[in-house]
Amino acid sequence: MSTHRRDFLRSSLAASTLVSIGGSTIPGFLARSARAAGIPAGGDRILVVVQLLGGNDGLNTVVPHGIDGYHRNRRRLRLAEARLHRLDDEIGLHPGMGRMAELVEGGRLAIAQGVGYPNPDRSHFRSMEIWETARLDNRPDALEAGWLGRSLDQHPPRPGEDTPALHIGGGRSPLAMKARSVAVPSLERLDQFKLQLAGSEGERRSAREAMGDVARPDRGDDPLLGFLRRSTLAAYESSRRLEEVVGESAESSYPNYDLARRLEQIARIIKAGFGTRIYYTRQDGYDTHANQLDPHAALLNELSDSLAAFHDDLDKAGLADRVAVLVFSEFGRRVGENASHGTDHGAAAPVFVVGPVRQAGLVGEHPGLEEADLDEGDLRFHTDFRRVYAAMLGHWLGVPAAPIVGEGFDPLPLLPESRG
After folding, report:
1. Among 298, 361, 294, CA closest to 85
2. Sorted alphabetically, which Pfam families does this protein's record hold (predicted)?
3. Cα 266 from Cα 168, distance rounded (Å)
4. Is residue 9 within a helix (H) or strand (E), and if so which, with residue range?
């Protein structure tokens, strides 16, 4: 290979906008993320995690309208029973969650009540660390990897395989996805996945031709050539496949919400046959200390409509039984409303799972609302969140849960067990 061609390829790769991983740009990610052309989607199960940032008011989400303590503690924020989507004689979903109520009726949504952990921390940052790492200790290594990141470390991808996990959305990459041996990409938009070669159209055409020339198996054993074979062509092939995903022009059936757009991007990647098994995205705005009613209703409407559109999209593609969606927040809100017509940081809250659930509707009893039942004015948890994670890992993904969440956390019966 000529010196000119070597220099040209070096400069072309250096000028390429590939993908952001922890603030850096590396072609190696695309080498791992491109599965060989022609391999079908396969049967692997997929987990999508939606984190509700700020601490969702579970009491006005899964509403205990038939329990006296709700009416005593919620006067301005009380939701009328007639407007709720009934789940049983005592519990109903928020009026804005009609599409999620339809998922319950269709046998596709489970609601785990009273989820939390011992000695709850009401700090956003500390509680998020606990939920995202599945660790309650303060050891120095506690924040080195998240609960999903540790699952990735158990089975790191082989060369040529798709990235096993992907964060879709702005802001920092979630601690939950942090791993020791696997770099998890974080994309705000799907088009960031594209390989964008700099220069004029002619220069870009020359770069593509050079990539194809470099990839020929008869080009020798030059070390630089070997590197370019492994990384450059894989990057180009991954870019080509993802450009097809980005370039789809079908009319969207998703509502015009930020969360819906992120879930739509995840669905497009899944339908394109990529082998990524874990996706993570977030919805912000749940820290409702003042004038809560209308903003909270808007958030729950966005959540409900977005999740339903995502499920419907996958169902039409015949993929709904392969995908489970876990929805959680770092804590609930206090039982009593505050003087600003809002709610302050609390403890236990509901967790949602969308997919081929074992039992649709409510899982577990609603925490008691009498004074003696409360934990310093907060709902007292009865289901440790690590049991939910154990179900996602052990039952759904087929990953041993005990090394990640610890011993003694039996999986909550939310999803069918993996057969291998």
Report:
1. 361
2. DUF1501 (PF07394)
3. 8
4. helix 3-14
Alpha-carbon distance of 128 to 302, in angstroms, equals 22
- Nearest in space to 53 (alpha carbons), one of 341, 302, 283, 249: 283
> Kind of pairing, strands 278-283 and 46-52?
parallel
CA 186, distance to chain mean position in Å, is 11
How far is the C-alpha of 214 from the C-alpha of 9, rounded, in Å?
Answer: 9
- Residue the block writes with tokens 């092939």: 237
- Note whether 64 and 79 are within 8 A (CB): no
pLDDT > 90 fraction of the chain, expressed in percent and rounded: 65
CA-to-CA distance for 85 and 29, rounded, in angstroms? 45
Q: Give the integer Cα–Cα distance in Å for 32 and 164.
A: 9
Length of the chain (residues): 420
- Identify whether the C-beta of residue 240 lies closer than 8 Å to the C-beta of residue 208: no
| Beta-ladder partners of 52 | 283, 329
The string of pLDDT tens digits covering residues 292-311 is 999 999 999 999 999 999 99
d(CA 413, CA 90): 22
- Give the pTM: 0.82
Sequence-distant (6+) residues with CB within 8 A of 389 are: 134, 147, 401, 404, 405, 409
3-14 and 201-214 helices cross at what angle (nearest 10)? 110
Instruction: Mark residue 56 as left, alpha or beta (left: phi above 0; alpha: psi -120 to 50; beta: remaining).
Output: beta
Mean pLDDT of 119-132: 95
pLDDT band at 204 (very low <50, low <70, confident <90, very high): low
CA 185 from centroid of its chain's CA atoms: 13
Half-sphere exposure in the Cβ direction for 252 (13 Å, CA): 17
pLDDT computed for residue 227 by the predictor: 47
Is the sign of the CA dihedral 385, 390, 393, 397 positive or negative?
Answer: negative
Report the mean per-residue pLDDT for the chain: 83
Which residues share a beta bridge with 165? Answer: 278
Query: Could you tell me whether strands 323-329 and 349-354 are parallel, antiparallel, or unpaired per DSSP bridges?
Result: antiparallel
Burial of 334 (0-12, 13-18, 19+ CB in 10 A): buried
Query: β-strand 165-168 against 278-283: which pairing, if any?
Result: parallel
Which class in CATH covers the domain with range 21-193+256-405? alpha beta
Maximum distance among all Cα pairs of the chain, rounded to whole angstroms: 81
Q: How far apart are CA 92 and CA 125, in angstroms?
A: 30
